[in-house]
Write a structure and sequence with these properties.
This protein is an all-alpha fold. It has 12 helices and no strands.
């Protein structure tokens, strides 16, 4: 894998992890669906303007249907993820959602990528870590609590994120920038329909827009970095490097929100992130 591809993929993780933390914080005072919808709307304006200025808007149209798939799944994943972050522990939710990387990894394998022994070990560590991280909140009455439901939402978010990553990789082969335009156009359309159906904008005010705009721009920036990385390396490797973002979210949650985890959860998080790290190292 060329170094530039690895660097871009890791940068996408840093930006994604920060955006996830900010989105999770915003979702603790605003409806998660509103956070996703408004942040995506601001991002759509920014990325469309960029495509027009750079002339990329005239790129070949092979990105369209893959970007629609990525946009729909990405929107569903973000809504589930931000809801999980709003009610659960970031240090548990984020690693669980990151395991959705299995989807693009399998996609890469199906198209010719071959995993090394180290990658296989990484996958196993990631699975065991995910079970340990969510275990205390999946047992007994906890499953019916807000924390327990956040674990289930994180797993659902991971699946949607995985499909979205696969869509980004395929669409970026035509145009990474237009892939982000197609994704945001799809997600904003979905949330616009929802807003019209419920006749509500989620209580978002003009004062909230700069912060939500930052979340959206960072998310679309991470999408673009990941798409560019996918054109410069093996899809399976880029996918796992892009999935290191929980490290950033967990650290921000621990430092800024003073979150604490049970020991078994700490071990699970370490194993899950260690599995991702092994996959990246491979």
């Amino acid at each position: 894998m060329r170094p530039v591809g690895a660097v871009l993929a890791l940068l996408s993780s840093v930006v994604w992890g920060t955006a996830d933390y900010l989105g999770g914080v915003a979702s603790r005072r605003l409806p998660p669906v509103a956070v996703v919808g408004w942040s995506q709307a601001v991002a759509l304006i920014a990325v469309t303007a960029t495509a027009v200025v750079t002339g990329e808007i005239h790129a070949p149209t092979g990105w369209i249907w893959w970007s629609v798939l990525a946009g729909a799944c990405g929107a569903a994943g973000l809504a589930a993820f931000y809801t999980a972050l709003a009610h659960g522990t970031m240090g548990v939710v984020s690693p669980l959602a990151a395991l959705g990387v299995a989807v693009p990894v399998l996609g890469g394998l199906a198209t010719g990528d071959r995993p090394s022994a180290l990658q296989v070990v990484g996958m196993l560590l990631g699975f065991v870590g995910a079970v340990a991280a969510g275990g205390p909140e999946l047992s007994g009455k906890a499953l019916r609590s807000a924390e327990g439901r956040s674990v289930l939402l994180a797993v659902a978010a991971g699946f949607f994120f995985g499909v979205a990553l696969l869509g980004i990789q395929r669409a970026a082969e035509s145009s990474a920038l237009m892939t982000t335009v197609g994704m945001r156009l799809t997600s904003v359309t979905i949330f616009l329909v929802v807003a019209l159906a419920v006749r509500s904008t989620g209580g978002v005010t003009a004062r909230d827009l700069p912060f939500l705009g930052l979340v959206g721009v960072m998310d679309v920036g991470a999408n673009l970095l990941f798409g560019l990385a996918s054109t410069r390396g093996l899809h399976s490797v880029v996918a796992v490097l892009g999935a290191v973002y929980p490290v950033v979210t967990v650290l921000l949650g621990a430092v800024l929100l003073k979150e604490r985890l049970a020991r078994v959860q700490q071990a699970g998080v370490v194993l899950a992130l260690g599995g991702v790290a092994l996959l990246a190292a491979a």
